[in-house]
Write a structure and sequence with these properties.
By secondary structure, the protein is α/β, with parallel strands linked by helices. Helices cover 25% and strands 24% of the residues. The protein has eleven helices and 20 strands. The strands form three sheets. Strands 3, 4, 5, 6, 7, 8, 9, 10 and 11 form a nine-stranded parallel β-sheet that branches. Strands 12-15-18-17-16-19 form a six-stranded antiparallel barrel. The two termini are 45 Å apart.
């Protein structure tokens, strides 16, 4: 692939934060912005929050994220594994925790040990939980996502499932998951109407009915029910209006520079060749840190107040960029992969992926540095 240096452009200068201790790459996490995004969602939706902190708080540190979100007084937190819940409990977090991966009978004891509310999506799991405990649980209804849950038109909902729920003191919640509320209202309205029919047909209305993710919560009170379950908006991504405050800035040090002549190549496979003499800077971030090797289109990062193109293949530990003519770097220069002049959403678009994947792909060897909350 050939990338023209015309991709380089100038942007207003910004103040680059001091490097994080002795790290080669790190993430600056603004917990104040995270809390502000949570308050925005609560204000617009009019509902109490059940924030998603799964996948290590979308890559930013589940414990720190959960503690910061406590300023918005959430009802509880959502996780994807029992071990994620155990981590929160070990840190002293005592709000309700809902496991949003459908319960398997083998996980019942783990849920009980860590006081986790399971999501129940099939008859075997429902029987296993009720036989073992009268603690709270939530029932998932599939209204069109086709991923998990009792189908909205499953006759068992008013048969065997309904009979079990009628006698289950721990039945606390029922929920569904919208597949595309950011794309328009027709599909979401269809799912919502299916969900409402199921709730009306169940033996009783449980205390907690919930459906709205970030996109649906930002539509106002239409889909709020008793709880809303925000995810990516909290973490500064998703391209929504109103725009969330940026939360994560992924940064890395410059570790080398060199001058290349016309025709010189960069990185594995020699897939990029200089059209003219150019200075190359090597940034200490690679795909092992969460900057993907594969890309949907040419990419760029912020360096010394400008946005400069990535050239050649991203390697495990390092990435090369072509500097603008006359651009001078200080000895302690720091690049920002996203969270500055290049947004999280834009970097994800260039990489041919979504902001969720970029955040959750940040490597374990990359320290997180926290500021805030407000």
């Amino acid at each position: 692939m050939h990338l023209s240096l015309a991709f380089v452009y100038n942007s207003p200068a910004v103040n680059t934060p001091s490097p994080c201790a002795a790290a080669r790459a790190w993430v600056d996490v603004d917990l104040g912005a995270l809390s502000a995004n949570a308050r925005t969602l609560a204000r617009i939706s009019g509902g109490r929050l059940l924030p998603m902190v799964k996948a290590n708080g979308y890559g930013l540190g589940a414990i720190a994220v959960a503690r910061a979100l406590a300023t918005a007084d959430p009802w509880g937190y959502g996780v994807g594994t029992v071990s994620e819940a155990a981590e929160l409990r070990s840190a002293g977090i005592d709000r309700p925790i809902v496991l949003f991966t459908p319960l398997l009978p083998d996980w019942v004891e783990g849920c009980l040990a860590h006081d986790v509310r399971p999501s129940i999506a099939d008859l075997d799991a429902l029987r296993a939980w009720i036989a073992r405990s009268d603690r709270p649980f939530h029932v998932e209804i599939d209204t069109g996502m086709a991923r998990a849950g009792f189908s909205h038109d499953d006759p068992d909902l008013v048969g065997a499932v309904g009979a079990l729920l009628a006698g289950a003191p721990g039945w606390e919640g029922v929920f569904t998951h919208f597949h595309s509320p950011e794309s328009g209202t027709d599909a979401t309205e269809l799912q919502w109407s299916r969900f409402q029919r199921v709730v009306a047909a169940l033996p009783r209305r449980p205390p907690l009915v919930h459906a709205a993710n970030s996109a649906a919560a930002l539509r106002g009170t239409r889909y709020t029910a008793d709880l809303v379950r925000p995810g990516i908006y909290l973490y500064g991504g998703g391209g929504f209006e109103p725009a969330p405050r940026p939360v994560a800035a992924f940064r890395a040090r410059v570790v080398a520079t060199r001058r290349l002549a016309t025709g010189d190549t960069v990185s594995y496979g020699a897939v990029w060749r200089a059209e003219r003499a150019v200075t190359i800077a090597t940034i200490a971030v690679g795909y092992a840190d969460g900057f993907p090797r594969a890309a949907g289109r040419p990419r760029a990062i912020e360096l010394a107040g400008r946005v400069v193109p990535v050239v050649g293949r991203v390697t495990m530990d390092m990435t090369m960029v072509a500097l603008d003519e006359g651009q001078v770097l200080s000895p302690d220069a720091v690049a920002t992969v996203f969270g500055g002049l290049v947004s999280l959403d834009r970097q994800a678009e260039w990489a041919g992926t979504i902001p969720y994947e970029l955040l959750t792909s940040i490597g374990a060897r990359v320290p997180r540095h926290y500021t805030g909350p407000d």
